[in-house]
Predict the structure.
Amino acid sequence: MFDPNITSITCGNLDFFDSAVDFDDLAFLNLIMCMQESDKALAAKMNEIRALNDLKRQITAEINYLNQSLARSHAKADGKHQDDLVYVEGGLDNPTDPTEGKFKTGEEQAKYEKQMEDYRDKGRVVEYLEYQMPWGEILRIPKRVKVTAEEIKNANLYKRSEVEAKIEELRGKLQELDTSSSVMMIDLQRLMNKRNEATQLVSNMEAKSHQTAQAIISNIK
């Protein structure tokens, strides 16, 4: 049995130099401190899990928005229209709900996509050049200028193949997060087990102290 009157001991931030301390009291205080540290670790881990779940929900929503954009588009999913343009509300890196954006219906979106495809492939009429024919007729010839790739991107238009590739990229990230989530849940369970063990030890020590006190009271009587 250890000396019941231990002096000159520091436990964590508690200084016991100025008073005698019972060993059981020190053990009890140490367990309480361990439980406090466990609570902090549990809170930090739960915050990590919440942040990860929020990110998973965001990615899932983005995948749904991109799929909705494809469903509303005129670009068919037959493998032959991979270069057809698809309008993505918010852009490819930050897609939002297409039903609450620029186009309220799929028909409006498809019409815009086709028009921009025409500007991309054939060019947009910027002016008409007039020529006087020998017989007096004036011939008007349209001058077309094709829109640039940068203009198309700024208009939140992307090839169907690009949208599908983005969806696959997001699905890959989601799978990685699912794996991380599983690992975090294992860590959380481990921390909870340690917290429960410490709680049980404290409970046992309290019960033992109570029994000791009852025995002392009985002896005094």
User: Anything to note?
Assistant: The chain is about 60% helix and 10% strand. Strands lie at 10-11, 14-15, 85-87, 124-132, 138-145, 157-159.
